[in-house]
Amino acid sequence: MYTLLSGLYKYVFQKDEYCILILGLDNAGKTTFLEQSKTRFNKHYRGMSLSKITTTVGLNIGTVDVGKTRLMFWDLGGQEELQSLWDKYYAECHGVIYVIDSTDEERLSESKRAFEKMVTSEALEGVPILVLANKQDVETCLSIPDIKTAFSDCTSKIGRRDCLTQACSALTGKGVNEGIEWMVKCVVRNLHRPPRQRDIT
Ligand code: G3D
């Protein structure tokens, strides 16, 4: 009887919460992606103007509810001196969204190095990774095949985990829903990192 009632309580009053890190170099569009996601998924969220967002310094936190699943986003700063803090969050997280600026060919190899370091971290083993090729609204941007080629020597380091490269524009919203929905599916099926239970507020 107790099990039945606690199951019912959980079903009605609680959500499964997963922590998702948003990583990538500064200026890649991490904060814009977070704001766009909140605006799209949270019915009553009155977001800030996306074009007024400035680069992440420190940390932005936000939640997005997708049905009975809650994603708690941690948008970490991408400046070189802040990248050394990323791994402090790896053990706690359930998924990573790695944002690439598809218009910045000059910094692509820098982004690849940061990605490579992140993906080879033991503390992230088995954690799903969504790679967002952002700013695809800009006509002159790099295509997905261009980006995959630039990142090709990371492929073998990704290991046995879910990983998807998604074309995206955080500014217009293109690809945002698809990315979030893919991440939800992956974190829910990854039994190695179970969710936290949170009361619905
Ligand atoms: P960050 O959090 O990764 O540092 P921001 O990046 O979200 O602050 O975005 C950095 C700049 O890129 C911002 O422009 C923002 O408007 C722009 N940006 C983010 N996503 C997109 C996108 O999908 N398309 C285009 N065209 N621009 C984008 P400013 O001018 O404020 O620096």
UniProtKB/TrEMBL annotation:
Entry's Gene Ontology BP terms: Golgi to plasma membrane protein transport; intracellular protein transport; protein localization to Golgi apparatus
InterPro entries: P-loop_NTPase, Small_GTP-bd, Small_GTPase_ARF, Small_GTPase_ARF/SAR
Binding sites annotated in the UniProt record for Mg(2+): T31, T56
Superkingdom of the organism of origin: Eukaryota
CDD domains: Arfrp1
Entry GO CC: Golgi apparatus; membrane
Keyword terms, alphabetized: Acetylation, Golgi apparatus, GTP-binding, Magnesium, Metal-binding, Nucleotide-binding
Residues annotated to bind GTP: G24, L25, D26, N27, A28, G29, K30, T31, G78, N134, K135, Q136, D137
Cellular location(s): Golgi apparatus, trans-Golgi network
Keyword Transmembrane helix: no
GO molecular function: GTP binding; GTPase activity; metal ion binding
Family matches, as SMART domains: ARF, RAB, SAR
Record carries keyword Magnesium: yes
Transmembrane stretches, start-end: none
UniProt xrefs under PROSITE patterns: ARF, RAB
Subunit record text: Interacts with SYS1.
Similarity comment: Belongs to the small GTPase superfamily. Arf family.
Function: Trans-Golgi-associated GTPase that regulates protein sorting. Controls the targeting of ARL1 and its effector to the trans-Golgi. Required for the lipidation of chylomicrons in the intestine and required for VLDL lipidation in the liver.
Protein name as it appears in the record: ADP-ribosylation factor-related protein 1
